[in-house]
Amino acid sequence: MESSDQKTGYDKPLPSLTTLTKPFWDYCSRHELRMQFCNSCNEWIWYPKAWCPSCGKRKGIEWKPVTGKGKVYSYTVIRQVIDNSPSFNKDIPFVVALIELEEGPRIYSDVTEVKPEEVKIGDDVAVYFDEVAPGVSLPKFRKRA
Amino acid sequence: MGRKFAIVGFGETPVSRSRADKGEVKLSVQEYAAWAAESAIEDAGLEKKDLDGQGLGVTGTAYPHAEIYSGEVAQDLGISSRLLMRSDAGGNSGASLLNLACMAISSGDVDMVMCVGADTPMSITGPGALRTWNYEADFQKPFGMMGPNSQFAFVAMRHMHQYRTKAEALGKIAVTQREHAMKNPNAYLKTPLTMEQYLASRMIADPVRLFDACIQVNGGLAFIVTSEERAKQFKKDKIVWVLGIGEADNYQAGSMLSPDITYLGVTEAAKRAFSQSGVERRDIDFVQAYDDYTLAVLMQLEDAGFCKKGDGGSFVAEHDLTVKGDLPINTGGGQLSAGQPGMAGGFVHIVEAVRQLRGEGGERQVQNANLGLVTAIGCLGYGTSLVNTTVAVLGG
C-alpha cells in the first residue's frame, strides 16, 4: 500500500502498482474498466492473477473491457472504522458492495450517491471513475435505473 | 484413518485485554507461549526434554513477528525438534496443526508433536497492524473495507438474504455462548447477555453487530499429540482420540469467479472426518465451531451436515445449544465470550473439546460426552467465504 498523497491531500489507502496490477489501474485512469481474460479456457480472471486460476496457463491472458454494469451480490454498511483506516471516518456510514458484473467477475467497490438503507441485494449498478490521486482512479459504482 | 492418534495433554493460560484500569496483566507473546507449553507438558506428565527429537508446531502471531518465526519459538522454548511446523491459516491454524501432527506421526519419524499457539493482539501498535493480503491492500482497503468485520459481513448479508436467516438465530448463539462463558473461570466476558441486549448492540458493518463478533484477548494454548502406541504410556483418563480429521483449503471457491459464498470447505472436510471415524452426526455429543462471528457457527453446523444448507437458522432455533441441551456448542463460551487469542484462536475449540471428553468441564461439563466435533475456518478470501477449513472428530 502506498502512503497517502501529499499533493492532493488524499489520505486514504491507495493500491500498490506492480507489474501485475498496474495495467488495471492504468485502464482505470483512462476510465476504462478492464479485467484479465484467459483465451486458453475462455474464463475471466479477477482480481489480477499471474496465471489463469482456471487452467493454470500464463500465456494467452489479455486485459479485456467489461461493460461495468452489474448487480449487487452482497454488501455491507461500514459504521465503524478500524485503527489503521481513520481517514474513512468522515464518510461513515457508507456502502461497500460485492458487485457481480454482467460478464461474471465479482468486484468489491463503493456504491455512492445513495443512502445506506436504499441499497439492497440485486440492485442494478454501473461503474464510474473517481480520480483520487495521480495514476489512481478508483472504479466506483452508483445505482442505475 | 487407518490409525488413531491421541491428544495426551493441553495447556491454557488465563487471558487478558491488557487493561491497566482493570488491573489486567500485559504479558509478552514469549511468556504466553512458555506458559502454555509448560502447562501442556505438566498435564501430559512429560518433561520438556521428552519433546527433543519430536515435532513442534506453532502458529503465527497477529502481533508482529519475524517472517522466519518458528525457529525463534524453538529457541525461546529450548526444544530441539526433528520437525518444525508453522501454520499460517488464521483461525484454522490450531486444527491445521493437529492435522499436520497426525500426518507427521503417521510417517513414523516422530511419535509426539507439541502444538503451541500464543498471541498478543491487544499489544499491536503501529504499522504492524497493516500487514495483510495483497488482495485486501490493493482491492479492498482503497474502497473502505475494514478488515474481518467487513469481510465477513458480506458472507452474513448474503446468507441472511438467500435463506432468510434471522438475527434472532445469531442472537441465540451469542446468548448461549455467554451462558457457557459464565461457567468458565477463564472466560473474559462473564456478564449475562440477553437477546434484547444482543439485538440492541450496535451495528459495526451490517449485518454484523458488536455481539456477533469475537472479542480479542492475549493468551496462549498448547496441546500434545502422540501415536496410538506411545499413548499407552499416558494416563488413560488423559487420553482423547483423534478419530477422524479432514482439511479442505480453497475448496468451495476453487478457481470459480462466482462461488456461492454461503458455503465453507467444511462440507468436504466434514465428509472425510466423519467417514474416517465411522461416527454419525447423531452420535456427536457437542460441537466446538470456530466462532469469529455468530453466523460462522451457524454455517459450520450446516456444512458439517447437522442440517440442510440454509436451514441453519431454524436448526439453531429448534435445538437447545447449551451444555444441557441436545447439541451443545462452544461449551466454554468460545471466542465470542471467552476470547480470541489472536492467531491462537483455533486452539480454544480443540482444548475445550479435549477438556469435555476428559470430563473436566466442571460447571459446564456436558453429561456423557463421548464424541465431540471440532470445526475450524480461517483466512477471509476475496469474493469467497473462508479459505482454510478443517474438521476433526474426537472421542474420549
Summarize the structure.
Chain A is mostly beta strands and 145 residues long.
The residue-averaged pLDDT of chain A reads 93
Helical amount among residues of chain B, as a percent range? 25-40%
The largest interface is:
A-B, 45 and 36 residues
Task: Tell me the strand percentage band of chain B.
Answer: 15-25%
N-to-C span of chain A: 35 Å
Report on the structure:
The complex is a heterodimer of chains A (145) and B (396). Helices cover 6% and strands 38% of the residues of chain A. Chain A has 145 residues and is mainly beta. The relative contact order of chain A is 0.20. Chain B is of the alpha/beta class and 396 residues long. Chain B has helices spanning 29-44, 70-77, 93-107, 134-139, 147-163, 167-181, 195-200, 266-277, 294-303, 312-318, 334-337, 347-357, and strands spanning 5-12, 55-59, 83-87, 112-119, 203-205, 208-209, 219-227, 240-249, 286-289, 371-380, 386-395. In chain B, strand 10 and strand 11 (386-395) form a beta hairpin. In chain B, helix 6 (167-181) crosses helix 9 (294-303) and helix 6 (167-181) crosses helix 10. The interface between A and B is large, with 45 and 36 residues.
